[in-house]
Specification:
Helix content: 25-40%
Distance between the termini: 59 Å
Radius of gyration: 24 Å
Number of domains: 3
Bound molecules: S-adenosylmethionine
Number of strands: 22
CATH architecture of the largest domain: 3-Layer(aba) Sandwich
CATH superfamily of the largest domain: Vaccinia Virus protein VP39
Largest sheet: 7 strands, mixed
Strand content: 25-35%
CATH topology of the largest domain: Rossmann fold
Length: 468
């Protein structure tokens, strides 16, 4: 079936990961970048006995639910794939994904799944963006067909599934404040000064990557990664940013001669300003360094944490475990309402941030431990501390390791609040926890408008707990 063109395929509904579903001769077909209600011609990219994957090559009828994408880079940039769907429908589809995953995978009795908590800001909502310099700009079909010569240096985002091609971003609707100005000015400066853009294949070139982080009160951190240790080029670049953008709160750089762009293991040099920025939430101050994790949508993060705290139903008497605590944001956020909160996380520097955040905020009833969850959370750990009255767990996309889920079943805390960015693995873990727990509440939260991603909070209560 591969490469066969399926004509007049009616797109019926949204499935997982933003793909849509149609049927061809009784077989399910998953199609990307379309909308329910479209009728398309689609070329099969993968054929299996029970389903096919296809890409739309022509849209014959547009769904009445479609809206015009607002970004000039929509289509080639992988960032906001749902711009062609109105925000109201995006919210319905996200909730529906949670319903589908829980019905299909968890298969346990469920309460009504609440309407998703939508975002007030559907644009400029991110506090962190990561741009890549490249000497291999993505050219559109029209540009290639024109036969003209184009500038091949670019600063922007990867084309989906192409590690070597970069869309040159002129305006990004994801991050406000100075983000667009800094990126465009730095690119223009580099072109004018003929500084070299990174070549991912040859692993050469001075300018490699630009990360911009920001806070709700417009503090800005800019981190430039250089692919060559060229002091003159580095000085020229950093001096330009310092002079041109005195509003940058924290100006940093990294020399990265490794094969990949991650810099957790590299030295970060402070060029100007402070070595961190500070986000504020309910009066609590969270220090964000270049290597710190922080939820990328600050406003919706607060909504997510409020739901989490409400589900936990704290009275001030409880011992709370905050599993996968990151920089301890949830732990510190709920601390005032609990007797003590214990956070566990395997990234040691994140735990150092968590402790520092507690200290800065005068919080004295939180404890933080670094290590792999399945190693740290064991019987002797629980014996050393109090057993939990409430467990809050916020694992990565893969969900919890089965040993951790088994440990939670053994512990039998009266309440578990499970926060997840992947309802499929969350539903899988909830199916295991259902041995001793009932699902009481399910609340999806939208952290990422214009994308198919959905965050979900589930409250589990120990069965027959009140009778004991
Ligand atoms: C979704 S984040 C949670 C962040 C945090 N709750 C917050 O809201 O800022 C998941 C966290 O789990 C941590 N993690 C991943 N695998 C782990 C493991 N096996 N043991 C402990 N922590 C782990 C990651 O480093 C990450 O900080």
């Amino acid at each position: 079936m591969k490469n066969k063109v399926l004509q007049n395929l009616k797109i019926e509904r949204i499935a997982t990961e933003g793909k849509c579903v149609g049927h061809y001769e009784g077989k399910v077909v998953f199609v990307s970048n379309v909308a329910p209600g479209d009728v398309v011609d689609a070329r099969v990219t993968r054929g299996r006995s029970s389903f096919m994957e296809a890409e739309a090559i022509e849209i014959r009828e547009y769904s009445p639910d479609r809206v015009s994408p607002f970004c000039e880079h929509y289509g080639s940039c992988g960032g906001c794939k749902w711009q062609h769907i109105s925000y109201e429908l995006q919210m319905d589809y996200k909730r529906q994904q949670v319903v589908d995953q829980f019905q299909r995978i968890a298969k346990v009795p469920l309460p009504e799944i609440m309407p998703i908590i939508g975002a007030k800001d559907t644009r400029y909502y991110r506090n962190k963006l990561d741009f890549t310099f490249s000497n291999n700009r993505w050219l559109t079909r029209e540009e290639i067909d024109s036969g003209a010569d184009f500038e091949r240096n670019a600063l922007g985002f990867h084309v989906p599934k192409r590690f070597d091609k970069i869309v040159d971003i002129q305006h990004c609707y994801l991050q406000g404040s100075l983000s667009n100005e800094i990126r465009n000015a730095l690119r223009d400066f580099a072109l004018a000064e003929q500084l070299s853009f990174y070549d991912i294949i040859q692993q050469t070139g001075l300018l490699r990557n630009l990360v911009i982080r920001s806070t709700l009160d417009d503090q800005v951190m800019a981190i430039v990664q250089f692919g060559e240790d060229d002091p003159a080029g580095i000085e020229k670049t950093m001096q330009f940013l310092k002079e041109q953008f005195p509003g940058i709160t924290s100006l940093l750089y990294i020399v990265n001669l490794k094969k990949n762009e991650t810099f957790q293991d590299l030295d970060v040099h402070l060029y100007a300003g402070k070595d961190h920025i500070v986000e504020t939430m309910e009066g609590l101050r969270f220090k964000i360094g270049p290597k710190s994790f922080y939820q990328t949508n600050s406003r919706q993060a607060q909504r997510l944490y409020e739901v989490t705290r409400e589900f936990a139903g704290l009275t001030g008497e409880e011992t709370v475990y905050d599993l996968y605590t990151g920089t301890g944001t949830i732990a510190n956020f709920v601390a005032k309402q609990a007797k003590q909160v214990i956070g566990i996380e395997y990234v040691a520097p994140a735990i150092a941030d968590a402790k520092e955040n507690a200290l800065q905020n005068g919080i004295t009833n939180t404890l933080f431990y670094a290590g792999d969850m399945k190693e740290v959370l064991n019987e002797s750990f629980v014996a050393e501390h109090q057993p939990p009255d409430v467990v809050i767990t916020d694992p990565p996309r893969a969900g919890m390791h089965e040993d951790v889920t088994r440990m939670l079943l053994m512990l039998g805390a009266p309440k578990i609040v499970y926060v997840s960015c992947n309802p499929a693995t969350q539903a899988r873990d909830v199916a295991l926890l259902a041995e001793r727990y009932e699902v009481r509440r399910i609340q999806p939260v939208d952290m990422f408008p214009q994308t198919y991603h959905v965050e979900n909070v589930v409250l589990l209560e120990l069965k027959n707990h009140d009778d004991q």
